[in-house]
Write a structure and sequence with these properties.
globular, Nuclear Transport Factor 2, Chain: A, alpha+beta, about 30% helix
Length: about 130
């Protein structure tokens, strides 16, 4: 199975909150690192850490939709361009932005995700 297909399965499992499925595609040392520029900054490890991140993110949004689009594959990485749109909880404002998520693989599994936001200030304003 390609690394892109694994990234797609990870997105699908997260969207459906199928955590056993999600766990199949992550390395035991999995971590997602959110930038210090974001209100939910930090490193989140494993399935439980990812679920903690989801809860933290949704404290800032009434609705949030993530639509992965274009994928690029390298030797041990996949980059996915993700369209985010929704409504901020504090402002009530609708928004749309883009994120590039860089997946790093080890032993055929996702070991790290690094999200790069186009406009992190926007997230604070919502």
């Amino acid at each position: 199975m390609s690394k892109i297909e694994i990234a797609k399965r990870l997105y699908a499992a997260a969207a459906a909150e199928e955590w056993d499925e999600f766990a199949q595609w992550i390395h035991p040392e999995f971590v997602i690192r959110e930038s210090a520029a974001l209100p939910y900054a930090g490193s989140y490890q494993g399935v439980d850490g990812f679920r903690q991140l989801v809860r933290a993110v949704f404290t800032h949004f009434h609705r949030l939709y993530a639509e992965p689009g274009h994928y690029m594959e390298g030797e041990d990485h996949v980059a996915a361009i993700v369209r985010l749109h929704g409504t901020g909880k504090r402002s009530g404002r609708a928004f749309e932005t883009s994120v590039l998520e860089l997946f790093r693989f080890r032993d055929g599994l996702v070991v790290e995700i690094l999200p790069y936001y186009w406009d992190p200030q926007l997230i604070h304003e919502l």
